[in-house]
Each structure stands twice: as structure tokens, then as C-alpha cells.
Write the C-alpha cells for this entry.
Amino acid sequence: MTTIALLGLDLILGLIAVALWAYAAVRAQTSGLRWAMAGLLVVLVRLVTVLLLADRGWELAAERVTVGVPLALLAGTAALGLLIHARRRNRTGSTAARTALWCAAGASAVSLVLTGVVGYPGWPGAAGHNHSHSGGVAVTDLRTPPIGAARKVELVAQTQAVTLPSGRVVDAWTFGSLPGPTLTARLGETLEVTLRNRDITGGVTLHWHGLSVPNGEDGVAGVTQNAVFPGDSFVYRFRAEQPGTFWYHTHQHGREGIARGLYGALVVQPASGSTAGVDLVLPFHTIGKTAILGGSDQVQREVVPGGTPVRLRLVNTDQQPRLFALTGAAFRVVALDGVDLNGPTEVSNQALRVPAGGRYDIAFPMPASPVRLSVEGARQAGLVLAASTDAPEPEASQPTTTFDPTTYGTPKPVPEMTGEFDGSTTIVLDRLPRILNGRPALAQTVNGGVFPDVPPVLVTEGDLLRMRVVNRSFETHPMHPHGHHVLVLSVNGRAPTGSPLWLDTFDVQPGEVWEVALRADNPGIWMDHCHNLEHAAAGMMFHLAYAGVNTPFTHGPGSLNTTE
Ligand code: C2O
Ligand code: CU
């Protein structure tokens, strides 16, 4: 049984138990005994369920195992005992028995409240969060000094009515086009990007998703800079130190800004320059209800002669995981989140599940027949590669299996990530009623709290940190630590058997437990959050903060910065 099924089962059993005990109390004089026995049976099944859950991950069931279910079991057994006792003495209307049955119903309800309202851990760590992490260096000092030889780019944030290839017009917010221009740099080159805001009244920033830039260049409003308002500008500078596929987007009220178009791709080419053959960057986005792949809401065609090496860089800039499929060619998955995989083998007829914010690079030699790239749920948008303009379009296929990165490629030692861990932290994701921005809400919580009231994860430069991420909720959370890639240690207790997996956005699906390692090699105050930005805005964010780094910027009430 899957963990999520167990979580669901436990919830349903808990509700049924409450109902059975309550009904037994109502019918105490007549059929009460039968209902009470059923109630006890359900609690016993719950006991098995929560023990199975605890085995999958202690944090998934801790309060159920230690308090909730024992309480329900105790109250239930006592109530049943009293009822039987009363019957023996022929006092069917015993008030004591009836009260005990109500208590049993209450105990089952309490266990549901513990799980559904209090959450885990029951105490959200130390007090609230503030930015004055003990003196030292300011994020504004963690910047790249200007150099003459930088590759200079200007991006102008603006409202723009964009006419898509279908003729449909969307009222977008863009960095000049939809998506923004693809930025490219060669490994080792320094990019200097000037951001200007023409008329995005809520402000913008530029965040370099997946790139380990110096903290002061990270573009998080309220943490590493102030949002850039109309008429203002900000200059970002960083050395491209990792070849691969990345993307950029606003990090000021990104939930709305990115959705409306404030994003683009960023490709770092190897030092030798671009790779031979066809190299296409394909961000997939949904604007309003329209799906666009690259810049088109229709099937685009490219003429590619047979034998040409093809590389497709798939970027998911949406809030939900997307399933990509390639029809007509076997391919290799050569990189995830901008990092090459070791020993990639041929894949065919498998869907690629790209997390929100994640990137998959796939490569294949162009076959003689046409090839089609499609995205599940987006019938209009797609890509067809064919040797001639009149070749027939292959149908989009629906692979029944999904590519599993944890068993793909060849293992290889990662010496820089082995050795003693200097610290470990557990991040429990859940959906709980909380006060969010001053209002009650069904929030997306981290360790029972909502941002900014989630204590930061504190590290010291050089630390090797083990991070365990547990998803107790029924939703997928693509977790994205800024400024670092993490090495996957295990998913649901299983270590990857293939290539080392270095990710900057990992999809923690409902009930999943991930363990990752992070080397604290980039000082700063870094966001770590769910890249479903609805969830981020609903509280699912925290900081990874280095000892001795502080920030002069603020967010939240009274500030114009909206961190997500
Ligand atoms: Cu792609 Cu904090 O973001
Ligand atoms: Cu989420």
C-alpha cells in the first residue's frame, strides 16, 4: 500500500471511529454494544495503519502513534468495558457507560485534531524568525564586483499584449518577450544583467533559478535586495560556473509575476562554445489557460536532417509537475537541473515527469522519420522535428511508464559529499489551519509553521548538512533550495542505484520522504521553498541561513517586498 493511501486510510478510519462511538453513545440502551465493538475494531485497524505509516517515516505518524491512537484505544476499551459491565447488571441506561462512549468518540476526534490541526512537530521550534542572524557580513557584501569583460544584457520588465502564433492575444508581464529572451553564457564568462522596470507596478526582481550565484545577486525581494519598482533598475553580475540549463524569473510576488510571464531560460554552454547540432530550449508554461512550449501555443516544426545530434532542454516554469513525452525516437536523459548524469542509457516510451521549476535535458541523434515532443494535457502546443517540411506529424504518444531518475545511469563516487555530516535537519511539509498574513487560512506549513515564522535552518560555511524532507500532505511539493544543488541520498528509504542525482528542485510527492545532502559552500541567507508558488505564498518557505550573515532588507507587513 502506498504511503499516501495509508495517510488517506487513517483519516477515513479516524472519521468512521468518531461516528461509530457517537452512534454507540446515542444507542447505548439498545444496539450500543454492537456499534461500540465496531468502533473498537476500527481503532485497532487504525493502530495497524499508523504503525505501518511510522515505519515509512516517523514524522508521518508520530503524534498518531504516541498520543492519538493510544488515546482513542484507551478511551474506547474503557467505554466498551463499562457498557458490558452495565449490561451484565441489566442497567442498560447506565449514564456512566453513555458518558464513556461519548468520551471515546471525543478521544477519536482529538486524535484527528492532533493530526489535522496541530500537525508535527506539535511545537513549531523556537520563536519567530528575524533577520539579525548575529552580525558579520551583510548580503549586500556578497556580490560580484564589476569586471570589464562581462557579457552585458538588459531586461526590461513590462506589461505587454503578446500575440501568440495561434492569434490569441494574452495580457502578459514580460522581460521583453514571452518567454523572456534566452540568456546564454559560456562557462567562466561573467554575465551582467541590467534589470529595468518599465511599468510593473508591484515591482520585480531577477532570480537565477538553479545557479549558485553569490547571495547578493540572488534576486529575492526582502532578503537579498529590495524589489525594483517602475523607473528603477538593478544590475546583477555573476560568473557562469556551471554548464547546463537554468532559468530566471522574478522573485517579487512571483506567484502572479511568473504566471503572467516574468520568466525566461538561461543556458550556460561549455567553455568550448555551443554543442554541435540542434540545441533547443523549451520552457513549458501556462498563461491563463493557454499552454505554451517555447514561445508558441501551437505545434512548432523544425527541419532537422537525419543523423543530426539533437538536444532538447525541457524547463517546467509552471506550478505543477508536467509530463513530457517524445514520440519517434529513443533518447538519453543527459542532465537534470543543469547537472550532467553519469552513464545515461537509452530511454524510450517513458514519460518524463519534470517538477515545477525543474529541468530535463534530453539528447538523441535525429532519426530519418519525424519526432514529436508533447506535454500531457497540452494538445495544442508541441514540437515536431522532421527532415522535411511536408513529413507527416506523428501522433503524440502517452507512455504508460514514467522515467525514474533514481535508477538511471551509472553510480559514481561523490567524494566531496562523503564523510561525517556536520548537522541534520528535518523539514515536515503539511497543510494545516494557521494564521497567514494576519488571516486564518488553510496554510502550507513547514514544521507546523508558516513563513516567516519558520525558524531558519542554520549552517556554518563548510558544513555538510543532511536534510530530511517529509511530506505529510496530499499535495506535491517541489522543494527548491536557492544557491545550492543537493545530492539525493534516498527517496522513501531507497538510495539511488544509478547516477548521482544533483537537484535544485526535487518533487516531494504526497507521503514521500526524501533525504538529501547539502554542502554549505555559498554563504548567504537563502530561500528554500516549494516551487508551487501558490504553496510558497501560503507559507511553504524558509531560510537556509549561514552563521554570520545578515540582511538589511525586510518583507511582510509594512514592507513593499513580497518574498515569494
Ligand atoms: Cu525558482 Cu525561489 O525560485
Ligand atoms: Cu508545495
